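In the design runs reported in the main text, the only information available to the sequence generator was the tokenized backbone. The following block is the verbatim input for one such run; it is reproduced so that readers can re-run the procedure and compare outputs position by position.
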């Protein structure tokens, strides 16, 4: 799916803010270390994706009660839910001048208990005129997200028959329902009850 930019041009998708704090020293240091092992934009993007997917635990999978939301905090604490991991990857990409933004899906629970918003990212490599969505959530049995800029390999392909949807908007910053849930939840148990059910 090709996301629809919330803002024209690419400036907003390269900017730093309180959440996507790509200028923070820890983000810059991490980006520099990843870049040193790659040397070109494509390889860097793949390395950054795999770093966030594989070395930062999804707090639900790890049963970690901490809630992180700022990209630098996610990198420091090495934990976060899907939104937080998307913030970290977006910051790492912007730190090396790769335009990146935030995308969302509405996903249902297999047990029918309701729907929640899931976060992922989209990036645009220099020289390309399309956005590619990636999901750094983290793999586990039944979840196998992969690096692919052409054919999507997301953690959760949507199931329209269950009312699941890909939200089309490419956000430069987290939408208020996502950020509010993260910033006001003292622990993951509270956050789980506060997850947005729509955008």
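Verbatim output:
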């Amino acid at each position: 799916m090709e996301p629809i930019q919330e803002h024209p041009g690419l400036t907003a998708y390269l900017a730093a803010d309180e959440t996507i704090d790509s200028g923070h020293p820890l983000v810059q240091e991490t980006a520099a270390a990843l870049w040193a092992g790659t040397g070109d934009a494509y390889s860097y993007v793949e390395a950054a994706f795999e770093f966030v997917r594989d070395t930062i635990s999804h707090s639900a999978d790890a049963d970690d009660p901490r809630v992180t939301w700022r990209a630098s905090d996610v990198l420091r604490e090495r934990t976060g839910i899907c939104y937080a991991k998307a913030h970290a990857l977006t910051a790492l990409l912007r730190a090396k001048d790769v335009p990146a933004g935030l995308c969302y899906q509405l996903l249902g629970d297999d047990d029918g208990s309701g729907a929640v918003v899931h976060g992922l990212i989209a990036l645009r490599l220099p020289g390309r005129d399309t956005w590619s969505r990636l999901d750094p959530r983290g793999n586990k049995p039944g979840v196998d997200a992969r690096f692919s800029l052409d054919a999507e390999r997301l953690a959760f392909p949507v199931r329209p028959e269950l009312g699941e949807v890909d939200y089309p908007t490419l956000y430069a910053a987290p939408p208020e329902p996502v950020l509010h849930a993260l910033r006001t939840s003292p622990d993951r148990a509270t956050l789980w009850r506060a997850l947005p059910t729509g955008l």
